[in-house]
Amino acid sequence: MIAVVRAVADAPPPAFSGGGWEAMHGKMGGVYEVRVDGANRHHYRLFRLLERDGDQLGLGGPSVVLVAGKDKPF
């Protein structure tokens, strides 16, 4: 999961073309998730925001903000 987040930070969408980076829709628009299927038939999700104007918010530049992680059985 962290490898995907680092790859996106290095080349944010739309430049990023790797897998595992999914855009949410509807009320969750603007939020992205990394999806991984793990052992023991579990789904793992890491939700994050892509803040292109991070320098204006004190983040030092464009940033990937990790919000929450969740897991659930298949």
Pick out the low-confidence regions: none
User: What is the 3D form?
Assistant: globular
Between the first and last Cα atoms, what is the distance in angstroms?
18 Å
What is the count of structural domains? 1
Number of strands: 4
**Biggest sheet, open or closed, and with what strands and sense?**
4 strands, antiparallel
Kindly estimate the percentage of residues that lie in beta strands according to DSSP: 35-45%
Average pLDDT number = 84
Q: Please state the structural category.
A: mainly beta
Q: Walk across the major sheet and give the strand order.
A: 1-2-3-4
Order of helices and strands: HEEEE
Proportion in helices: 10-25%
- Total of helices: 1
Rounded to an integer in angstroms, the radius of gyration calculated over CA atoms is 13 Å
Summarize the structure.
With 74 residues, the protein is mainly β. Helix content is 12%, strand content 43%.
